[in-house]
Amino acid sequence: MSLQSEIGKRRTFAIISHPDAGKTTITEKLILLGQLIQVAGTVKGKKHDKAATSDWMSLEKERGISVTSSVMQFPYNGRVVNLLDTPGHEDFSEDTYRTLTAVDSALMVIDGAKGVEDRTIKLMNVCRLRDTPIIGFVNKMDRDIRDPIELLDEIEEVLGIAAAPINWPMGMGREFKGVYNLYTDTLHVFQPGKGSVIADDIRINGLESDEAKALLDDEYDNFLDEIELVRGASHEFDLEAYLAGQQTPVFFGTALSNFGVREMLDDFVQWAPAPLDREVEQASEARIIPAKDETFSGFVFKIQANMDPKHRDRIAFMRVCSGEYSKGMKMRHVRIGKDVKIADAVSFLAGDRELVEQAVSGDIIGLHNHGTIQIGDTFTEGDEFKFTGIPHFAPELFRRIRLADPLKSKQLQKGLQQLSEEGSTQVFMPQKNSDLIVGAVGMLQFDVVVYRLKDEYKVDAIYEPVNIHTARWVECDDPKAFEEFKRKCADNLAIDGGGHLTYLAPTRVNLALAEERHPEVRFRATREH
Ligand code: GDP
C-alpha cells in the first residue's frame, strides 16, 4: 500500500461539547463501532480498566469532571480514525485549545434537551480560527428534547454556522421511532435498550413505502408535512461548505442507546478531510508542508506526565504532519538542533499503549520525554522549519507553593517542572529568592497539582497567597537594552519551567510602567515556539 493512500485514509478529529452532552458515551460507541472493544463502558471510569489512564482519575471522579485526555485510534470502513479526547472542564481549556490545533476536523455533540451551551460556543470559536470542518450530533433523542427545528435555528444563530440536517428524528422520548435520512430516503428504525451492543440495523426504504406508513402510524401525515417543511427551510448539505467550515451537517441520535452514531460515523469517514496541509516557518518565511509529503515531520501538542501508573514516565503527543514514522528512525529535534533516534514511540489503539512500528501523516504517536521535549516542538527528517500556531498562554492566577516536609524540595521541584511541561500550569523560579511560584489559568489546576504531587511524587505541598497579578514572557533584540532591563527589573524576573525569562508583575500598573520604561523589550502574554 502506498504511503499516499495510507495518508488518505486518516481521519483525525476531536469531539467538542459542553460537559454532560454525551462526549464520553459517544466516544465509547465510536470505539465499539471500530470493534476494538466488544463491550462499551471502558473509556472513563472504573479503576482497573485498561483505559483508565492514570490514578489521578480518582480526583476526576470526585470532581465529576474529565481531566484526562488521550488518543484513540480505530479502523472503520477502510479508514483509520484518530480520535483525540479533550478535557471537558473549562480550567483545562488551554490543553483543549492545543489539541484542536492537532486535528483536521471536529464532531460537535449537543444535548438535544439543552441546545447550544457555553462551552460549545467557546470551542466553536477556537475551531473557527482555523476553519475546522464540524459535524453536528444532536444527542439524547430518547428523551423529550427541544423542537429539532428550533435547535437547528439555534445552531445557526448562536454558533454562526449554517446547519444542514442529514437525518430527521421521527418523534422523541418515549415516542422516538428512529431517524429518516433526507438524502437516501431511508428510515432507520430505533432499537431501544441496547446500550452496550451494536443494535441490529433495521432500515426501511422509502418514506412512501407501506412499512414506513406502518411504522409512523398516526404520525405519518404529520411527519410528511414536517419533512416538507424541513426540506424547504433548511440548508442542503454542501460538502465544499462543510470542508470550508461554513456549514455543519447535523445528525440526530442517542449515544446512550447507541443509535444514530453509526449513521453519523459512516458519513463522517467519507466527508471529513484527510490530513490537511500545514503552515510552517522557515528562516522567518511562512511555507506550507503538504500532508502527503514523503518526508517525515510532526509537532508536539501535548505532554502528559505519569499517564499510566504502570509506566511512570512522561509522554509527548506528536501529530505526524507529513511522511511516516518508522521504528528506529532518526528525527531532528529542531528547537535544540539535535538528531535523535526514536525506537520506542507508542501508539494509542483504543487507549491502550502499544509500540508503534509505523505511523503516517495524520496519526498521533507518543514519544517518551525525559525533559528535553516541550509543547510546540517540531521534529523533522533534517529540515529546519517549525510548525506555528501552538500557543502557551500566560497564567492569570498565582500561588507560592511550600512543602510540609522541607527535605523533599528536590522532589517538589522535579514534580512541578514535569507537571508544568504539560502546559496547563507553569512553574516560576524568581531570581531574588528561592520561592517556587505556580501559575495557572483556572483555580482547579491548583488542586490538581497538589493532588498529583502527593500521588505521583509523594510530596505534601501547600499554597500561600503571593502578590503577583500577571506574568509576561520577555524578549529583546538589543542585548545592551536587555541587560539594562534585567538589572533594573531583577526583583520582578523569574525563570519558568522551560527556562524562559519571565516578568512577574504585582499589578497591572506595574506592568504598564515596565513596558513604558523599556520599549525595546517585548512583553508577551502568549508564547509560541
Ligand atoms: P460528557 O460529560 O459529555 O462526557 O457526557 P457523558 O457521556 O458522561 O454523559 C453525561 C450523562 O448523559 C450520562 O449520565 C450519560 O449516561 C447520559 N447520556 C449520554 N447520552 C445519552 C443519551 O443518548 N440519552 C440519555 N438519556 N442519556 C444520555
From TrEMBL:
Q: Which GO terms describe its cellular component?
A: cytosol
Checking SUPFAM superfamilies in the record gives: EF-G C-terminal domain-like, P-loop containing nucleoside triphosphate hydrolases, Translation proteins
Q: Name one Pfam family in it.
A: EF-G_D2
* Keywords, ordered alphabetically: Cytoplasm, GTP-binding, Nucleotide-binding, Protein biosynthesis
GO terms for molecular function, please? GTP binding; GTPase activity; guanosine tetraphosphate binding; translation release factor activity, codon nonspecific; translation release factor activity, codon specific
State the family it belongs to: Belongs to the TRAFAC class translation factor GTPase superfamily. Classic translation factor GTPase family. PrfC subfamily.
- Functional note: Increases the formation of ribosomal termination complexes and stimulates activities of RF-1 and RF-2. It binds guanine nucleotides and has strong preference for UGA stop codons. It may interact directly with the ribosome. The stimulation of RF-1 and RF-2 is significantly reduced by GTP and GDP, but not by GMP.
Give the protein's recorded name.
Peptide chain release factor 3
Upper lineage is:
Bacteria, Pseudomonadati, Pseudomonadota, Gammaproteobacteria, Cellvibrionales
